[in-house]
Amino acid sequence: MEPPRCEPKGAAMASDFYQYDDRRDPKWGLPGDVRENWNNPTIATFFADIMTPGLSQDEIDMGRAMFEGAFESMLSGMTMPPELEAAGEWAEYWAPGCVEEPDAPELRLHVRLPKGEHEGKRPCIMYYFAAGMGGKPDYFDTEIAQYSADLGAVVIAPQYRAHPEVKQPAQLNDLHAAYQWAIDHADELNIDPDCIVLSGYSIGAMMALGLAFRLKKYGITPRGLSIVAPPVDDMANGPSSRISFASENLGCEERVITWHSFFGAINVARPAVSPEIIPNHCTVDDLRGFPPVFMHIMESDPNRDEDIEFCSKLLAAGVMTSMHLWPGTNHATFYSGPMYELKAKFYAEVENDIKTLIENDCRRPWSA
Asked: What does the angle CA 357 – CA 360 – CA 364 come to, to the nearest 5 degrees?
């Protein structure tokens, strides 16, 4: 049976452009471990169970409970290595709303504090988890603890508000609030407020870019961004926008569902929506003076072509930009299934990106 078309509601595109590009066959994956872990229909099912338009609140709650239960079950058999656990400690803080939404509910911050001696102020990593329709940053404790231990960094992971009940810019406001809280509490945390790196995957990566646009408005330039597979555009202009997994993985169908859930149907495929919300709505001039961006892109990902276009705009604006396109991968390749050689290489490269941004001020204020 053919998967549904991937045309976003309201997009002014010829319908024959949206003949799907079926990537379900593992032959599209890099031979070896990637092919063996190519599809994950459970992930796509959770997207439909929580974000399909028209669901009742009870149905959303049930889908979210199943999503979080699956995550908890997956993590129950995993333990953090004792030496990594001992390298830092966990703390929980609460931040007030940001200047653009001061009446927002308090925001929970999941924080990893490294142990040991450190000369001077520590760097800070803002970690934005993916999906956003449920879950919590605690699910990514091993990754967070590894960054903290290896880089001597304080890692702050905000638990932003979930969609579809709450739409953007509420989540962006939460990230803004967390960033401002870090600056306000820099002395208490012993962090350098001028060395804050934004990191995230998927929607978390998209919001990292959105926050950089927001902060630019206030004259603040983070140290840089290390991001993975951000859905930067909702116009579905590139050939990769047709990549489908027919609900066996994350493809164009799930991307369209996410846009409606996260932005609201009225805001989908509207160029006037701010780059704070949909980053690739920006112009090259909007990007002048933008912080450096190190981006990882997956070959069989509907986001691929828009991500490449966004990086091209960054380069045209004179922003230091690194773009690594991983062949034979899809949107979920490095975030599902067991650890294997290529996956370990990917995480090492992401960590090295963050290390580069911490150790070198790659910002180019003269390009603004």
From this structure: 90
* CATH no. of 15-367: 3.40.50.1820
| Residue 77: how many other CB atoms lie within 10 Å | 6
Q: Is 85 left (phi over 0), alpha (psi -120 to 50) or beta?
A: alpha
> Angle, nearest 10°, between helix axes 57-76 and 41-51?
150
Q: Is the bond leading into 105 cis (omega within 30 degrees of zero)?
A: no
Q: What is the pLDDT of residues 113-151, one digit of tens each?
A: 999 888 899 999 999 999 888 889 999 999 999 999 999
Band of pLDDT at residue 69, cut at 50, 70 and 90: confident
What does the domain layout of the chain look like in residue ranges? 15-367
Bridge partners of 156, per DSSP, are 111, 126
130 to each of 8, 70, 72, 332, how far by Cα in Å?
21, 15, 16, 11
Q: Which of 116, 98, 206, 112 is nearest to 157 (CA)?
A: 112
